[in-house]
Design a protein that fits this description.
Distance between the termini: 9 Å
Number of strands: 8
Structural class: alpha/beta
Shape: globular
Strand order of the largest sheet: 1-8-7-6-5-4-3-2
Helix content: 25-40%
CATH class: Alpha Beta
Oligomer: single chain
Order of helices and strands: EHEHEHEHEHEHEHEHH
GO molecular function: D-ribulose-phosphate 3-epimerase activity; metal ion binding
CATH topology: TIM Barrel
Cofactor: Zn(2+); a divalent metal cation; Mn(2+); Co(2+)
Keywords: Carbohydrate metabolism, Cobalt, Isomerase, Manganese, Metal-binding, Zinc
CATH superfamily: Aldolase class I
Bound molecules: D-xylitol-5-phosphate, zinc ion
Catalytic activity: D-ribulose 5-phosphate = D-xylulose 5-phosphate
Number of helices: 9
Radius of gyration: 16 Å
Strand content: 15-25%
InterPro entries: Aldolase_TIM (IPR013785), Ribul_P_3_epim (IPR026019), Ribul_P_3_epim-like (IPR000056), RibuloseP-bd_barrel (IPR011060)
Largest sheet: 8 strands, parallel
Length: about 230
């Protein structure tokens, strides 16, 4: 037994001009969640989408929208994103040291699932208080590339963080994001990740549904072994 596998295609690799049909296609191919990368051009050197796009997409799907906030001031996004129909709200620990308690409480009060993400250079200990506090986050996202862009190379050295988290929190949702695909999934799944974000490997595949089912079976098989 383990925590449920969640396969989350990153819509950053989709055709933004056809977001609704791209989302529908991924769900038909077996995606559990749709990963939405929200960037502000400050926290990361790229600008993507925000609440208006989430709101537009929400009109076309009931899917779980797994929002990854690569922004300097996540607190400002809680209200607009909840109104827009976001499901998960994952903020970065690097910008939330001072106000994570208020942030988590506001996210939960809006009915969204709070998660915390950390960049490759951030030590895993930094998220412990957020998982162990009175008002804990419900997911930890371990970045396996520097946030900002799709199509980068997976950093296997991040698996130490995943292993440490899985040993400490057997039932926590642990997400990995960046460079995941058929050649890296076994490394991540055997370290204990259960929520898998994949952009270029899914959207760039000739058979995306085969990639999604391979990602899922790798997570499920790793759990049977442990
Ligand atoms: C990067 C984003 C990722 C990205 C992953 O900052 O957080 O979600 O879309 O893309 P791939 O799977 O192509 O590395
Ligand atoms: Zn992401």
């Amino acid at each position: 037994m383990g925590v449920a596998a969640k396969i989350a295609p990153s819509m950053l690799s989709s055709d933004f001009a056809n977001l609704a049909s791209e989302a529908e296609r991924m769900l038909k191919f077996g995606a559990d969640w749709l990963h939405m990368d929200i960037m502000d051009g400050h926290f990361v050197p790229n600008l993507t989408l925000g609440a208006p796009v989430i709101q537009s997409l929400r009109k076309h799907t009931e899917a779980y929208l797994d929002c990854h906030l690569m922004v300097t001031n996540p607190l400002d996004y809680v209200e607009p994103l909840s109104k827009a129909g976001a499901s998960g709200f994952t903020f970065h620990v690097e910008v939330s040291k001072e106000n994570w308690q208020e942030l988590v409480q506001r996210i939960k009060s809006k009915g969204m699932k709070p998660g915390v993400a950390l960049k490759p250079g951030t030590p895993i200990e930094d998220v412990y208080p957020l998982v162990e506090g009175e008002n804990p986050v419900e997911m930890v996202l371990v970045m396996t590339v520097e946030p900002g862009f799709g199509g980068q190379k997976f950093m296997p050295e991040m698996m130490e963080k995943v292993r440490t988290l899985r040993e400490r929190y057997p039932s926590l949702d642990i997400e990995v994001d960046g460079g995941l695909g058929p050649s890296t999934i076994n490394t991540a799944a055997s370290a204990g990740a259960n929520c898998i974000v994949a952009g270029s490997s899914v959207f760039g595949a000739s058979d995306p549904s085969a990639v999604i089912s391979l990602l899922r079976s790798s997570v499920e098989e790793s759990q049977h072994k442990s």
